[in-house]
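Researcher: Last one for today. Full complex below.
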Amino acid sequence: MDKYTKKIYETTWDMKTYKSDRKSPPYSATTYDVGTYGVGTDGNVWRISTVGKTTRRPSGYNRWLRHYDTDMDKKAIERTPSAGMVGYDDYIERKTMSDTELDPEMGMDSPEEEIGGLDALFGTDEEGEVEATPEPIVEEEPVVHTPTVISKLKGSVSLPEEFKFADDMVFYTMLRNIFRCHPILITGPSGCGKSSLGKILADITHKPYYAFNFGDTMNPAAKLLGDTKFDKDKGTYFKESRFVGALLDRKGAFIMLDEVTRDRTGDLANILMPVLDGQKYLALDESDDADTVQIDDNAFFYATANIGREYLGAAHDLDRAWKDRFTGGIYELDYLPKKKEIELLLIRIADLSEKDAERICDFAKRIRDLYKAEELNTAVSTRMCLKAGSLVVDGMTLLEALKHTVLPFYPVVGGDDTERVRVIQTIQAMGDSEYIGDMEEYDDEE
Amino acid sequence: MTKSRKKDAYWHKITRQMIEYGLKPAQIGKVLKQVFPETEVNGRHIGAYKRRLTTEGVEIAVRPTMSMNEAMSIANELVNDEDKFIYNCSVGSIKRSLKCFEYKMTREAEEVDTQEEIDIWVSGLKQA
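Model: Here's the assembly. Have a good evening.
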């Protein structure tokens, strides 16, 4: 290929970027004489003719035009490409590719259907050889858009503030699980907002809300099933629990099972097994003819738990079968980010200054970092931050409030290297100079 | 060029039916208000959705093939449980601004000056 022809190729390559459907020979009509025949990319014969003659441009300009032969009746018929025509070699190459590479089973096919444009034909490597790497054109089937529950939730429901620290899909999948009535379990450290989240979800979904806290019960069976009572007129009778009433709510109850890991007897898990799985019934006693409560199909269960050695001791995780019942999934919540936690403190404690709120949350974050680094066995919860904040508002210094609130959670045993010492060091490292200064002035007045 | 993402919403299904019947956006808005009383969807939203359907090639009747009364009567049947649930969530999520559980509002409403009570309580302690 000479330098000049190569330049034409490149020009044609550029042209393709805005005219990919070019059918005439990919060579400039101005470089050949009028009357030259060529083979187009469509496999037909073209001829250079002069067109556009005007008085201002009497010579006109050259263009590729389709050229036909005529038969005996002087009707136009296609002319067969022959050697000597411009672009004949390319035509043969295209035909070869269509026979061997593009469709080896079917044999001859029309080139325009099989060849992936001029890219395959005119792509050259460094040595100037033709790269024959055509890609078969696969016609894409039109994608039919089908709305789904989650896509509709995304399009209709705005994301609450609390969820901004998490992936928004967490929120939408939670709502989807509520709609599908798949029970979910929320785990996370104490005081991170698990129960509050349940109340919010119940509010959003407009479902009747029933909360059962298993941290306050000594007898889970009585809490879930009911208990015997005595009445002087009726005598001893069985009174069904509030839980039974919730299961029968025909509006589809939102049932919060709070602190399910507080039950150490195992009764709670045993009673709830058939409630949470596909059987969906609750037997009120152990007899063969026991009354059973058929659970409403729209009832939804939201359970919260503290998982970890610090809460569950040696058995630091939930039973596998028990976890398996939460078909909606197990969500692990973490503490609020610092900014959100400051906002929470300022809203819940009316008179707390922004500076104090920031310092409390800064301290909480430092302790949580130590906990994550496994230097401490427990972290500072949002609830503890709120408690410290309220003490500051009622007149305690920030240092004292933090010590008063936080230190009892850390053991003393171990001499100078105890967790408590680490926490005290963290409090002192905060540099509470302003408060120390205030205290000194107060001492002087005394 | 990035492809624009089409939103789906709980009111699309019923609205599409009504559009195909040839009802005008304002009329459909009234029908929606009957099924979803607290919805914020109005004629402009419906008009935009109608344009989207037209672009997608949905056949729309030029003249209404259904009266408003008929549309009102069948509206409830066109809404399934899924759409009702999502509507409830939509209304619920708007109602709650959820600024950290909205304790501020309730506190402000119930807030009373406790200073006097504290003084009385402390003076009682002194006397004891």
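The helical segments of chain B are 12-20, 25-35, 43-56, 68-75, 81-95, 103-110, 115-127. Residues 12-96 of chain B form one domain.
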